[in-house]
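My main concern about presentation is that the manuscript never shows what a single data entry looks like. For the editor and my fellow referees, an illustration may be useful. For illustration, here is how one protein appears when written out as sequence plus structure tokens:

***
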Amino acid sequence: MTTAQNGNRVKVHYTGTLQDGTAFDSSVGRDPLEFTIGEGGLIPAFEQAVVGMTAGETRSVDIPAADAYGDRSDELVHEVPRNVISEDVELEVGMPLQAQGPDGQVINLSVVAFDDNSVTVDANHPLAGQDLTFAIEVVEVAA
């Protein structure tokens, strides 16, 4: 039986929960998550938790906020004039928006507050500042 190592393509089922037990994401009922260990497409601590596992094995891993999506930063919360967002957009607190950064990269935002004159947006990842727990089940390990 192949043991998962860096460079292996793996398929896993997972459920991610917050410290209070609230599930924020899960592959249950969907296709398993497929990735190559070490490519950096996922949280590095999640990828490393799979190293050493074999198909059928399960594990739970706690990932502190600093090793997941980082700590929340007040510097990433900004108030912008209402007119920089199209009038066609019906704003709601919590709704996602996207902006373009100075170098052309897409910045994901969420609406924190708004009125007729301004909109407060937050560029922190929604899970920033949260310690995460993942229940992981390896479905397949391929060389």
Observations:
- The CA atoms of residues 14 and 66 lie 20 Å apart.
- The mean pLDDT is 95.
